[in-house]
Design a protein that fits this description.
Layout: H1 4-64, H2 76-104, H3 114-136
Helix pairs in contact: 1-2, 1-3, 2-3
Length: 137
C-alpha cells in the first residue's frame, strides 16, 4: 500500500497532466478559430472587390450603353475585370494560406470550417461574375 503522501502526489500529478492537456486543447482550438477569423476577413475583402468591380462594370454599361469612352488607358470594363480578378486571386491566396495553417496545427482533425465553405461559395459567384463580364464584353 502506498503511503498517504505518495498517493496525494500521484493524484496531483494526474490532475496537472489533465489540466495541461485541456489547456493545450483549448489553445489549439483558439488558434483554429483565429485562422477562421482571418479567412473571414479575407473573404470580406474579396467580396468587396468582386462586388465593386462588377458594379462599376454594370453602372458604366448602363450609363454609356455601347459607346466606349475614348482616351482612357483602361475603361470601366477593364477596371471592373481587374477588380474582380484581384478579388478572386486574393480569395485563392487566402484559401491556400488557411489550409497550410490548419495543417500546421498538429495532426488533429477539425470539423469543416464554415468560413472555408463561405469562401468557396463567394469564389463561385465571383467566377460567375467574371464570366458574365467577359462574355457580355
Amino acid at each position: 500500500m502506498l503511503p498517504k503522501m505518495a498517493l496525494s502526489q500521484t493524484n496531483q500529478t494526474e490532475t496537472d497532466a489533465t489540466k495541461s492537456d485541456f489547456s493545450t486543447t483549448l489553445a489549439i482550438e483558439r488558434t483554429r478559430i483565429a485562422y477562421d477569423r482571418t479567412m473571414m476577413a479575407w473573404t470580406r475583402t474579396a467580396t468587396s472587390l468582386i462586388a465593386f468591380g462588377f458594379t462599376i462594370y454594370k453602372f458604366f454599361q448602363i450609363e454609356l450603353g455601347s459607346r466606349a469612352p475614348s482616351g482612357l488607358v483602361m475603361g470601366p470594363r477593364g477596371f471592373g475585370l481587374t477588380l474582380v480578378s484581384i478579388g478572386l486571386f486574393s480569395l485563392l491566396l487566402a484559401a491556400i494560406e488557411n489550409r497550410r495553417n490548419l495543417r500546421a496545427l498538429t495532426g488533429l482533425k477539425f470539423p469543416r470550417s464554415m468560413a472555408t465553405i463561405q469562401a468557396a461559395v463567394i469564389s463561385i459567384l465571383g467566377i460567375f461574375a467574371l464570366v458574365v463580364m467577359l462574355l457580355k464584353g
